[in-house]
Amino acid sequence: MSVAGVVIDARGRAPLIQRRDNGKWEPPGGVLEREETIPAALQREVLEETGIKIAPPATLTGVYKNMTGLIVSLVFRCEVADGAPTTGDETRALRWATREEVSELADEAYAIRVLDAMDGASPPAIRAHDGVKLV
């Protein structure tokens, strides 16, 4: 299971990170560690990849299953508590993106996660993808 956090700024933009391992643009997030709770993993991943500390609680905006990789990802809309945007060990670049930029930069399977969070999907969206495209 993985988590991702979408922080929306005052201008309606969300940070996307460019991963060092594959160069892809995605919302900050990652796989939960064995003994980690979902909120703790969300806090850790967003902080590690963006330098932003998020305020609890975060709002669940979607559940996404990678049909190829068999990974379920929970995506949350988050608010900033503290910190300044920066890159980390896993992050090549960080960019605040508009809706249009999200769709241009990220593969469809990741862009939809950010767009659902920007929309504040309620109830949360439930979607499946093949790692790149929605199915």
Task: Please provide a brief summary of the model.
Helix content is 24%, strand content 42%. With 135 residues, it is of the alpha/beta class. Helix 2 runs antiparallel to helix 3 (108-119).
Task: Please give a structural write-up.
The protein is α/β, with parallel strands linked by helices and 135 residues long. Helices cover 24% and strands 42% of the residues. It has 3 helices and 8 strands. The strands form 2 sheets. A 5-stranded mixed sheet has the order 4-1-6-5-8, sandwiched between helices. A 3-stranded antiparallel sheet has the order 3-2-7. A hairpin with a 4-residue loop joins β5 and β6. α2 packs antiparallel against α3 (108-119). It is globular and about 35 Å long. It starts with a strand and ends in a 6-residue tail after the last strand. The mean pLDDT is 95.
Q: Over the alpha carbons, how many angstroms does the gyration radius reach?
A: 13 Å
Average pLDDT number: 95
| Major pleated sheet | 5 strands, mixed
| Spatial gap, N to C terminus | 19 Å
Give the ordered list of helices and strands. Answer: EEEEHEEEHHE
State which percent range the strand residues make up: 35-45%
Instruction: State the share of residues found in helices, binned by percent.
Output: 10-25%
**Structural class by secondary-structure content:** alpha/beta
Question: What general form does the structure show?
Answer: globular
Number of DSSP helical runs? 3
Number of strands: 8
Task: Indicate the low-confidence ranges by residue numbers.
Answer: none
Strand order of the largest sheet: 4-1-6-5-8
Protein name: NUDIX hydrolase
Organism: Streptomyces andamanensis
Domain Nudix hydrolase: 1-119
GO molecular function, one term: hydrolase activity
